[in-house]
């Protein structure tokens, strides 16, 4: 009870700051029940006068509330389905920049992580070169095993940030429960789930070993891509609170003038941005979900380099097929196929009509074919698509919304380099290649092979399951709780069932192979 009172007071403080800075202006009162409309009206009366200039209201409010809320705002910027596109665009501009913590503290964190003095770990260790709410970055030099001097970026956790975030997280959980209690309709947006997703995301971001693993996985996936690369983590100098990786010398993608002056082709870089992102999402199912210009560089060779892997997205095979077929369907104007993909994936309930859904999608697709390709926003098409699906009871898919929001950012970066970029022509080779590889004859054979392996695992486990059942029956018999003849009959039936199950599974496996080779 006391805890609830504390959370209520803290939550009221958060609400006051939001109201004072104009953060409630994004809420549409027509969507609220009468009692919440009245509360919103009272809250709007607290707004400070003269809020029109400068940063957006949500930026101001969350910056005042502190690092945890800045991080929450950045997370919500990837969820326009929850906060609306206008609020998401405001949150997108949140600057996660705070004063650095002292060099002495940074050195203590590093020495505690590795149990050695800083001079034994690095030849040199600079003052911080960048600082954010969770960590700051230093430049360091080391000698590798071959005696070659290398430059590293050393990211160090801000002391006390975990405790601060956990405290603020409890308030966010409480406020999510309050929102649900006051407006049950809000459950469609799953506020409690959103807070838990944020908690998992940030807690993973606060373990630099996991970020190093994400960096390593993305590097492995993209090792054969000529136009994109990822810095290598330095595993021996990485721990929970310290991440060391290759230092990147390059030009940020938001400095187009410097890119041109260095002799790089901005149009080729714009195409590389969109195709790299789509390869990660569709081909690999693992993508960098924070590809804003500050996290993208072009190196001396003209290669695109990404940094900061705290926020990553994953797509399963079904979601990748969903995305690829939707993009290709819009490119080919095959709206019936786009609709069918939604139903096959189970995203739209079966009681709706495929034809009606295809008609709604046509309302999105046809206008784009009346315009020049460089005027069409792929991200806007997906945004409109998700708006339409809400009319057909499509539940929120977190991974798809994160993908859509990342695409908004990626498209903006690509078009800042090449305003005439044809996004659809750029996307088509990646989409067609994936569909041909995974949904063509070779993909069907590989899918059948995976099915056979799964079935063989099940078959292999059947004898063990039968033995365990026999041991259970023996123990029951010894305890006197079962009739011996009845138990033996059950055991015989289970053995026969296991034999027939094995035969059936192998028949299914053979059938799958035959169908795959037709």
TrEMBL record:
Domain Protein kinase: 123-499
Metabolic or biological pathway: Cofactor biosynthesis; ubiquinone biosynthesis [regulation]
Cross-referenced SUPFAM superfamilies: Protein kinase-like (PK-like)
InterPro entries found in the cross-reference section: ABC1_dom, Kinase-like_dom_sf, Prot_kinase_dom, UbiB, UbiB_bact, UbiB_kinase
Coiled-coil stretches: none
GO biological process: ubiquinone biosynthetic process
GO molecular function, one term: ATP binding
Keyword Cell membrane: yes
Superkingdom of source: Bacteria
Signal peptide limits: none
The keyword Acetylation belongs to this UniProt entry's keyword annotation: no
Residue stretches spanning the membrane: 498-517
CDD domains according to UniProt: UbiB
Keywords, comma-separated and alphabetical: ATP-binding, Cell inner membrane, Cell membrane, Kinase, Membrane, Nucleotide-binding, Transferase, Transmembrane, Transmembrane helix, Ubiquinone biosynthesis
Sequence similarity: Belongs to the protein kinase superfamily. ADCK protein kinase family.
UniProt cross-references to PANTHER family, sorted A to Z: CHAPERONE-ACTIVITY OF BC1 COMPLEX CABC1 -RELATED, PROTEIN ACTIVITY OF BC1 COMPLEX KINASE 7, CHLOROPLASTIC
Protein name (database record): Protein kinase UbiB
Organism: Methylobacterium bullatum
Gene field: ubiB_2
